[in-house]
Amino acid sequence: MEGEPLSALCTPALVVDVDKVKRNAQRMIERCQKLGVQLRPHMKTHKTLECADIMTGESRRCIVVSTLAEACFYADHGFDDILYAYSVPFDKVERCAALSERLDLFQVLLDHPDALEQLKKRRLRDGRQWHVWLKLDCGNGRAGVLHSEPEALGLAQAIAETEGVQLTGVYAHCGNTYNCRGVEQIQTVAQETTSLTLQFMEKLKAVGITCKSSIGSTPSCSHPVKDMAQLSEVHPGNYAFYDVQQSVIGSCSLEDVAVRVLTRVIGHCPHRNQLLIDCGWSGISLDGAGKLPTGYAVIEGHPHLKLLSMTQEHGRVEPISGPLDYRKYPLGSLLTLIPYHSCATAMMHTVYHVHSDGRLLGRWTPTRGW
User: Fold this and answer.
1) Tens digit of pLDDT for each residue in 9-29?
2) How buried is 308 (Cβ within 10 angstroms: 0-12 exposed, 13-18 middle, 19+ buried)?
3) What letters, b where the CB count within 10 A reaches 16 and e where it falls short, cover 229-267?
4) What percent of the chain has pLDDT over 90?
5) Which of 49, 185, 259, 342 is spaced 20 to 30 A from 280 at the CA atom?
6) pTM tops 0.85
């Protein structure tokens, strides 16, 4: 299908504008170069080799993953310096050990002393060490040991003092930037997360421990604050694709969003003043419910339409106000959905159709599983 228009695709189909991906990635590379920090891009949004090459400048080094399936996928294709940024699951310690013994640098993350005990029980062969990042909660309220608790410093010391284990760094995710609206709010959260992380690094220094520091989220790294220059690394991920959510937050403009879901009109329902489309939640996800005036997505070029609801394979579209002019939407006609959350939408597809200026270039195939 190379060279054909997007309309040649069967729907629903996830399409990726590779020019926008490259532009988004280059901007992030340049931001980090200007700050003087190492960019460690997160793979969790796209989970493909091609996009990983774009985000790493084809170095195939220094990446973050959220699943062990991703870690194995990238390791199998020549990537190294991989950080598995998920509190190390006890059922996967042996697989983590295998990657640690195979790669030049495979790193794990933990936030509980019981996880450290698991690593102590599984010594690595050939004198290798576990490379461990301490997950710190600086206000995000998800994983991580709370920055202000004495247990945080105690756990860092325990990691540093354990034979066969190295404290590689301190890792904080400022996912609370996702509650922001506008650059000022984003930078306020980014500053708070950066300051708390740097304060914790000073606590470590006071007890003789030195290691790396890293924070990240797409909003914070799209609008970084100056103090982020004092960090070792940053680890954003969604920025390669962006999405409607990021445009609402203020991370990007809607024009920066590199992904769309193509769908076709399959039904007219004048008794309900609705259209039926062939994209249900299995083609775009249910993420973003009730958060947009246009429903679950933005319907490109049709600001008066709303994706009201979905079942597995059907979507219900209706006008925001007034009667629907069915002559504008004949059966078989294409609509283009800009997803609320590209990470969730991408997970619904086993192949991405890549294009430039609306002409198909090929396919990217993501890895799946945990």
Assistant:
1) 999 999 999 999 999 999 999
2) middle
3) eebbbbbbbbbbbbbbbbbbbbbbeeebbbbbbbbbbbe
4) 98
5) 49
6) yes
pLDDT digits (tens, 9 = 90+) for 337-368: 999 999 999 999 999 999 999 999 999 999 99
State the Cα angle at 104 between 22 and 87, rounded to 5°.
75
DSSP state of 12: S
The number of beta carbons lying within 10 Å of the beta carbon of residue 223 is: 21
Q: Chain-centre distance of CA 28, in angstroms?
A: 14
Bridge partners (DSSP) listed for residue 261: 14, 337
CA distance 329 to 362: 29
Domains within the chain, CATH numbers bracketed: 36-238 (3.20.20.10), 254-364 (2.40.37.20)
Q: What percent of the chain has pLDDT over 70?
A: 100
The angle formed by the CA atoms of residues 285, 55 and 20, to the nearest 5 degrees, is 65
**Structural tokens at position 257:** 């969003």
Nearest by Cα to 200 from 167, 171, 175, 162: 171
- DSSP states of 307-343 as a string? EEEE-SS-EEEEESSS---GGGS-TT-EEEEEES-HH
